[in-house]
């Protein structure tokens, strides 16, 4: 992994930040992405550089396809290539489904699904050329459950769609040396979903628990694993 270059979307804070810091221990460069909080993104860059790895921050609104494509181009230009893409940005909205405004539906679907699709399509040409790539999409632990989700309807729809996209890209890119997998957190400390009382393990997950799953799936050892959905949820509603 020493020569590999990684990009984590939405890595100025939260789970994305933890994934970026975890990747910095194993790859040569990590691109940190943010939308508004340049200062927090720069703080992550500083932490990565302290690990003696290359890093830089990149701004983009990933709900806009043109900015997603430009982001990938800028990272590839800066670090000469891009081997690992972690589509981490994925906003949630907790609101009764019939009260959700069209603009809110649009934002949740674009933020979770279209943004990942745009980044994924943009990284494929370079990965195919080098016959090596790792793509991880961040899901949601219940994304495989086709049931009613009255308070997170567009989020659940988008994450289930993202899983189908994950498996589709995994199938078409398997012969290109590219793996595409999903890591699906459940209830995580610092997240906005409700408490831990229904979690069989009686504890919330930590950002690091999610990062560890990503680190496994991007490793050389995981080369034969593609199209999987790795649920990180302590047994919650499985
Ligand atoms: N946290 C949880 O409990 C939980 C549970 C299940 C699944 N997940 C999934 O795990 C992933 C990470 O979740 P998270 O809650 O840590 O973070 P998140 O809210 O999905 O992402 C925050 C990051 O996204 C950036 N961002 C905000 N608006 C953006 C936009 N329009 N375009 C591009 N980037 C934008 C933020 O940048 P700025 O700092 O500049 O605003 C920040 O870096 C998501 O896919 C989420 O659905 C999380």
Could you tell me the CATH topology label. Answer: Rossmann fold
Report the end-to-end length measured between terminal Cα atoms: 33 Å
What small molecules does this complex bind? NADP nicotinamide-adenine-dinucleotide phosphate
Principal-axes geometry comes out as globular
Describe the 3D structure.
The relative contact order is 0.14. With 238 residues, this protein is an alpha/beta fold. The chain has one domain: Rossmann fold, CATH 3.40.50.720. Helix content is 42%, strand content 16%. The protein is globular and about 45 Å long. NADP nicotinamide-adenine-dinucleotide phosphate is lined by residues 10-16, 34-37, 40, 60-63, 88-92, 138, 140, 185, 188, 191, 193.
How would you summarize the topology of this molecule?
Layout: E1 5-8, H1 14-24, E2 29-34, H2 38-50, E3 54-59, H3 65-79, E4 84-87, H4 102-130, E5 133-138, H5 153-173, E6 178-185, H6 207-218, E7 229-232
Parallel strand pairs: 1-2, 1-4, 2-3, 4-5, 5-6, 6-7
Residues 10-16, 34-37, 40, 60-63, 88-92, 138, 140, 185, 188, 191, 193 line the site of NADP nicotinamide-adenine-dinucleotide phosphate.
Produce a short descriptive summary.
This protein has 238 residues and is α/β, with parallel strands linked by helices.
Key structural traits:
single chain; 238 residues; alpha/beta; Rossmann fold; seven-stranded parallel beta sheet; 6 helices; 42% helix
